[in-house]
UniProtKB/TrEMBL annotation:
<dbReference type="Pfam" id="PF01636">
    <property type="entry name" value="APH"/>
</dbReference>
<protein>
    <recommendedName>
        <fullName>Aminoglycoside phosphotransferase domain-containing protein</fullName>
    </recommendedName>
</protein>
<dbReference type="InterPro" id="IPR002575">
    <property type="entry name" value="Aminoglycoside_PTrfase"/>
</dbReference>
<feature type="domain" description="Aminoglycoside phosphotransferase">
    <location>
        <begin position="1"/>
        <end position="48"/>
    </location>
</feature>
<dbReference type="InterPro" id="IPR011009">
    <property type="entry name" value="Kinase-like_dom_sf"/>
</dbReference>
Length: 134
């Protein structure tokens, strides 16, 4: 799995993908993590993925291309996994930022906003609630 699969990491040549960048988080694992990563901020099946298609359309395209059959529960589970990883990554980046600068000059609230942990926490809780409601 890529680990950070998103539009910003694709190289386009005319109307086709010519390359994929940013492989430092690639690892052995379930490729559905990448689906969850791409769908992470989608609150419903109608929400856009990469500004191109809805989450439901993206999942159907993935199912058709991969031969898999993801349902709503699968998508939410992998969105939760992706949000968890993003949250852990943000906390690690926050910790590195705090260690690299003079703590007296740092407003932790600004760093928290910069790294998005407030957004990830709320998103993770929302996804878990949706998953439990199924």
């Amino acid at each position: 799995m890529h680990g950070d699969f998103r539009l910003a990491n694709l190289v386009w040549q005319e109307d086709r993908v010519a390359g994929i960048l940013d492989w430092e988080t690639a690892r052995f694992g379930n490729p559905l993590f990448d689906v969850g990563w791409m769908c992470m901020s989608a609150r419903s099946g109608d929400d856009p993925i990469m500004g191109l298609v809805s989450r439901d359309q993206f999942v159907e395209l993935y199912n058709a291309a991969s031969g898999r059959r993801m349902d709503e529960r699968d998508v939410l589970l992998w969105q939760i996994a992706a949000a968890w990883v993003r949250g852990c990554t943000e906390l690690r980046l926050l910790d590195l930022a705090l260690q690299s600068e003079d703590p007296a000059l740092i407003d932790v609230r600004d760093l928290s906003w910069q790294f998005g942990s407030h957004r990830t926490d709320a998103e993770l809780l929302r996804l878990i609630e949706q998953f439990e409601a199924l």
